[in-house]
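Quick illustration, no need to memorize.
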Amino acid sequence: MDTLNIRNKNLYLNDVKLEKILKGKQTPIYIYSVDQIKKNIKEIQTSFKKAQPLICFAIKANSNINILKVLKKKNIGADVVSMGELKLALKAGIKPNKIVFSGVGKTEQEIKFAIQKEILSINAESSNEIELINKISGKLKKQTNIGIRLNPNIVAKTNKKITTGNKTNKFGVTIENFYNIITNKEKFENLNIHLLSVHIGSQIKDILAYKKVIKLIDNILIKLKEKKHSISYIDLGGGMSIPYFKKDSKFNFKKFGIEVDKFFKKHQKKIIFEIGRYLTGNCGIIISKIIYIKKINDRFFVILDAGMNDMARSAIYESFHEIIPLKKNRKKFVKKIEFVGPICESSDTFGIYNNYFLLNEGEYVCITNCGAYGRTLSSNYNMRPLIEEIIIDKNKYRTVRQRQKIEDLI
């Protein structure tokens, strides 16, 4: 997180001392940095010298409308996977011609709504879905632009729970099925198949997997030309990794941009990316209060007021985030600390640390890199309210989503 820094042993986000924000607030709290988002956008956009792709933010990563408005002002579109996300994107001011609709289980209601809004592309993931889109388009007397999502059977090195391009995954159609659809495209008289989509997973660190995808699409485009079918858009998905700890490697967007530019120069197709985590992952933090500290056997359990219902990534994926005290003024270290939440589940843990600062009850810690798949994966498990969200722009901050009240849940 570039905008998170320590000054005089106090933790700051942008130019704001985090302790200052906590006055009169109930923790835990999500806090987002607009400055970090803008920096991420600039890094991505300047990595492509020729292709100039349309970047569609994957709303499933962060659904706060104020975040979406920041992205929209920087010419970012939207990748949606439900009617709710589509309505949210439109409400944020994102134009329909910059929205793609992904997902394996779009309902008839969702498809109808997307057709009526004339979005850039409905990316179909099965022959059944294509037939349904064609049928609904006929009833509405519309010619609908669709994409076809390909399952390339390319295994990316990442957590098995977030792979999407393997033959065992539920996403997309096989290459054989794809060619069969194109060969019989005349029967889909209400559709314009103008896009080919591929997505191989999330939190991918190496560009080698993407190189394989580009090579595969290169061969497909040559065969499509033989079949006299023209594709206007290539949607290369997203999934680029971010470092969750300082020692983690960062995805090399500049090197990736060179590969994409080569592909663009050869085929002159409009490129789309569905990027979520890389745009907002490192913009967000959670501030949590230490409720209790207790020693059991070989470790100290630091029990926080933030739980797996507030930030579920660690429980679902065993993906841990760096945790930093708001005040780094400790000289004494303890051998082993495990940060845990108050939820009645053993999976409600945020990670084990060796040789960590000795902490005290009542102090605060910062869970870093929570700007993607944080609030969007939150729940009311154990009847816990969804927590407050604050946004910081330069040195000004404001609440952009109030904390829920228990009474409203009841």
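The longest helix spans residues 208-226.
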